[in-house]
Amino acid sequence: MIVIAGCIIVLGAVLGGFTWAGGHVAALIHPSEVLTIGGASLGALIMMSSKKVLIDLCRGLVATVKGSPYTRQLYADLFGLAYEIHRKARKDGLLAIEAHVNDPHNSDLFKKYPRILKNHHITQFLSDGFGPMIDGSADAARTAELIETEIKVMEQEHHAAVGVLQRTADALPGFGIVAAVLGIVITMGAIDGPVEEIGHKVGAALVGTFLGILASYGFLGPLAARMELLGETESAFFRTAASLILGCGGECAPKVAVEQARRGVGSEFRPERAQLEKIIAACDAA
Predict the structure, then answer these.
(1) Alpha-carbon torsion 240, 243, 248, 252, what sign?
(2) Are 180 and 224 a contacting pair, CB within 8 Å?
(3) Share of residues in the chain with pLDDT > 70 (%)
(4) Tens digits of residue pLDDT in 64-100
(5) Is residue 245 situated within a structural domain?
(6) Domain presence at residue 16
(7) Distance CA 161, CA 61 (A)
(8) CA torsion through residues 149, 154, 160, 162, sign
């Protein structure tokens, strides 16, 4: 989807409108302007980022192309797994699920849900969440504080990467002006030349301003907004997982705990009640 949107921006807003008005695409191709703007923005991005932020930014940009892994199907798997874990803990005690959450890759419960199992981030979150309750080092209230702290750190790290990208987007129009000024300086050096040559150099300078604004509001700005949206989607998923973990340590029945967590999911990803009933029935029949 993100690739299609980029093509629409280039073909519709730029090439379509420009060529329709009688312009030539070749007039927009000036490698020196791209090098000036791209080099300055990349240098600024690196300067304001740590190694961790740069890694998170690269991962976030890849995710904007691939899309969020936290789909409706993944939510359904999470509810099914959480129900089975809760049911087993309620029947045999919390110690009965210790082997499953500590070593999910060798767990019969986790193996039923490969989409959950192949996501290391989710399995680690579940292991860390259930751990304090299983070993008795924290009650449900203290576990809730620990999980909330972990989610806040996750959100802060994501916002750091988004913030760097957004600040770079905000700086791009300025770098475009820098490229334009350099182009005008070059033009002034050839002011006594032919009119055609002066016009070409002035046009190249203006392209710098054009590219800076387009890259800011047409690409990097929307990418930052997209990354922010994906981060909110991820955070919502882990808050649902946290609700299911805490439900396991509470007094409510497994079915009630899963239903309570389901109602906290946004409408885009929330399984229907009938679908949840099918998930529970399949778990009970296994």
Answers:
(1) negative
(2) no
(3) 89
(4) 888 888 999 999 999 999 999 988 888 888 888 888 8
(5) yes
(6) no
(7) 10
(8) negative
Candidates 60, 31, 66; CA nearest to 45 is 60
Q: What is the pTM of this model?
A: 0.84
Structure tokens at 217: 């509001």
CB atoms under 10 Å from CB of 134, counted, come to 20
Nearest residue to 215 (alpha-carbon basis) of 28, 19, 46, 23: 28
Residue 11 belongs to some domain of the structure: no
Q: How far apart are CA 64 and CA 50, in angstroms?
A: 21
Contact 32, 204 (CB under 8 A): yes
Torsion angle (degrees, nearest 10) of CA 229, 78, 241, 121: -70
**Is pLDDT of 139 > 80?**
no
The number of beta carbons lying within 10 Å of the beta carbon of residue 104 is 21
Q: Is the dihedral of CA 71, 225, 264, 101 positive or negative?
A: positive
Distance linking the first and last C-alpha atoms of the chain: 39
pLDDT at residue 233, as a whole number: 93
**4 lies in some domain:** no
Three-state SS at 131: helix
Residue 42 tokens read as 């990349």
Full domain range(s) for residue 128: 31-285
* Total number of domains in the chain: 1
Are 72 and 269 contacting, i.e. CB atoms less than 8 angstroms apart? yes
Residue 37 token pair: 């703007």
Q: Which residues contact 120 (CB under 8 A, 6 or more apart)?
A: none
